[in-house]
Predict the structure.
Amino acid sequence: MGHQVFKFNPDGKVLLTLGTAGVAGTDESHFNQPSDVVTSPVNGDIFVADGHGGATNARIVKFNKDGKFIKAYEVVAATPRSGLYLVLRRTLVVLAIVLPLLFVTGWASVGIWLLPSLAFTTGTLALGGLIGVTRAAYALVAVWGAVFFLPTLAKQEQTFALHPGAIPVWGGVFALTVVVVALRRNAFTRLDAHN
């Protein structure tokens, strides 16, 4: 009976069963240790909190009142599915604060660290949809070290990647990775995307 959610009438009769008995999973017909259920008082939609830590799922699964799957929402920020929306919201907040500084202090002084940071973030998301966000972040940290840190240590001077002349390059990398993320946006809501 594990990995299921039941809907009962007031007399205790089972009206609806969600999930598959004894079978854990991440698709629309399986749960992995569901831990709570909430029903919308407005339209009867059913929200299942699926999982509660460890190797279980970390998502909210939404069904209509008849038990038809609508959507699953990942609730762990380390997954690409929730990471996209979380990073976009946080990036917009940071830009709302930083962009006025661009006008006050000059484009090059702030843009030279802002664009590489944005490119790194969107690059992690773009690559994360393919190989997983954690692996993408490690790969890009290695690239970051190779592009910024090692040349700075070897030459004892600032690398070209941090000179104002590199701003168009970073703008291009940022624009390209934004396009990749936009084109692959379904990979960030798909239930079988890499973690």
